[in-house]
Amino acid sequence: MTDQCANPGPVIPAGSHHAWLLEARELLRLAVPMAATQLAQMVILATDTVMLGHFSKRALAAAALGNTLYLMCWLLGSGLPMAVSPVIAHIQGAHIAGTKQRDQREVRIAVRMGLWSVALISLPLLAVLIFTRPILSALGQEPMLASDAAIFMSGLAWGLPFAMSFQVLRSFSTALSRAVPPLVVIAVAVLWNAAFDYALIFGHFGFPRLGLYGAGLASASSNIFSFVAMLAVCLAVPALKRYRILHRLWQWHRQSFAELFRLGLPIGITMVFEVALFNGAALAMGIIGLPSLAAHQIAITIPSLTFMIPLGIGLAATVRVGMAAGAGDAIAARRAGFTAIGMAAIFMCCTALVLLLWPRPIAQLWLPDIPDNEEVLALAVSFLSVAAAFQLVDGIQVAASMSLRGLKDARGPMWLAGASYWLAGAPMCLILAFPLGLKGFGIWLGLAFGLLIAAVTLTTRFAILSKKAL
């Protein structure tokens, strides 16, 4: 694999001509492959769903339950690997500015402690996943489905440490402005996962027919492949190889680990806050009725896909803001963050327009336009109209949150996200849905309200912090 990005990208001087356009170009150079990588990871999940749907409806439902628990553990554990990116970006920025000379050693230590953090946090997370059946039973799920989900998890869980280790190496690569190698690895992992799903679920190519357990094994094997392939890239691509990330792998570095923990734990909790709100919304839809739940699943799929673009922009903003902050250039850091927020807002305005103009044709991609489906389609159309409204604020909040991450500000965004989603959004969902009688439409209005509060507070925080001397 060639090194597609020969340099880490400049920290654009405050007085440079067309500085905002130059910043937008650098952001796009990073954001496009990052967003594509996120979309490819969603394709892996979609492949599992499609394959299991063809195996049996019960298997599909059990895997959905298992994936919910797995996702929460993955999100909580991924905060520390994701913290590697802003740490390295700061090191790179300081090196470019000439204030730090030994960047290779410090980058190597950050990666090493990222891998150490995965090894340590994997143990309690795997312990949680081992108890999938009693946990789901305690949450009121059907005993048979809980048992099937545990079978699925018995294959899937062992890929979790490798999934998080891949995230460490991906953060290392993207923080050095080399976002294409992780994309290539994930693209191959999509094919790997599809092939092993087909083989292990249905018993093709001479493999045993393992059903749910086979689906879990296939996903775990794709995680192992992603990590091994990305490690090979890091050891082979010249621009990454020179950091010798495995050198003195067993040597502990307390200060670097403490910094990763200080940044990473709030990052993981922040992601759990948001995902838990949307999972809670799905549970509330189930209380309202099957048509509302079906319409919700249709309507939420579109924002989940479009969200990957501003997420990619936000990931790029973490690197760009971090490099500028590491160089001590507050103006460049502020410009990088607001460029990312503006780009995310522009893209989401376009997707919002699509949802406003063609909500019913979009809903009909999932359900045919027949009388039996009319209630679900009508509800989905109403939900999509609200989705159009929260597209803008959803894009802004993720870009602002990840720009703050570039400033190594993680605890503040955690508290703001928790308050926005659970002190504002969740109560509004319940009040509008039940006492005020708006049902599913009220839940979606509540979600939009929570995202609006998050967008306003996080953007305001970035505006304040980016004004301070770095």
Could you give a quick summary of the protein structure above?
The chain is mainly alpha-helical and 470 residues long. The chain has helices at 19-55, 57-97, 103-130, 132-138, 143-156, 160-175, 180-202, 211-236, 238-241, 254-288, 290-306, 308-326, 330-357, 359-363, 374-406, 411-433, 439-465. It has two domains: 30-252, no CATH class; 263-470, no CATH class.
Strand segment count = 0
Distance between the termini: 37 Å
Biggest sheet character: none
Specify the structural class.
mainly alpha
Mean pLDDT: 89
Descriptive overview:
55% of the residues are buried. The protein has helices at 19-55, 57-97, 103-130, 132-138, 143-156, 160-175, 180-202, 211-236, 238-241, 254-288, 290-306, 308-326, 330-357, 359-363, 374-406, 411-433, 439-465. The model is unreliable at 1-6 (pLDDT under 50). The two termini are 37 Å apart. The radius of gyration is 22 Å and the shape is globular. By secondary structure, it is an all-alpha fold. It folds into two domains: 30-252, no CATH class; 263-470, no CATH class. Helix 1 packs across helix 12, helix 2 (57-97) packs parallel to helix 12 and helix 5 (143-156) runs parallel beside helix 8. Helix content is 81%, strand content 0%. The protein has 17 helices and no strands.
